[in-house]
Write a structure and sequence with these properties.
Oligomer: single chain
Number of strands: 4
Largest sheet: 4 strands, mixed
Order of helices and strands: EEHHHHEHHHHEHH
Length: 226
Amino acid sequence: MIISPEHGFIFVHVPKTAGSSVAKALAPLERPLPRTLWRSIRRRLPLRDKVDTIYLRKHDPASRAIARLGRETFESYNSFAVVRNPFDHAVSHYEFMKQFRIPAIAEKVAAMPFADYLEYRMKKPFWNDTFFARLPNQSYFLTDTSGALVVDHIVRFETIDQDFPKTMQALGLGHIELPYINKTISRTDKTPVSAYYQDPRAIDRLYQLYGQDFDLLGYDRALPEG
């Protein structure tokens, strides 16, 4: 998550939605705070904080920012996030986890059929798992504790070349070049998304995991072609 008091915006970084590219583009506009032991401890405590002292992690959800800053402060900022078609988002995360930085988890996911991986994500983490391995749906990052959408602007991954410049203009930030980085390397461009859903169990489990995304973000539940 990026909070810029000088420019009045909050970027909520949903994993596997080109967020690293967006964060790099916005880096000159943020004022990063050093990670200290006290800030790390304070982050875990139910305390209010100020925008110029708060420490939030890269993938903290909007609900955490609201809890720490207060809703009034959060809503005084223009917030935005990038989202992705759930069918494609699940495939991207699956392939990413096959090359995850923790070899034991990467090997475990690589040995799973895609449908089993979706079921794996829906279970509670074990002691030797990470949050990223059991990633929730995208709505988790964009909603408050009641499930209501709290992010002002939604950029769609599928139309990011058009949506991102429009959002930057709406935020009064002008033209910002968007780099392309951190692309998952294990997935070949020749493999269509639909190929991952040949097993009917995969579609059923995707609907279970991403049901709120389809409803909240307006994506079609029909399997995309190609």
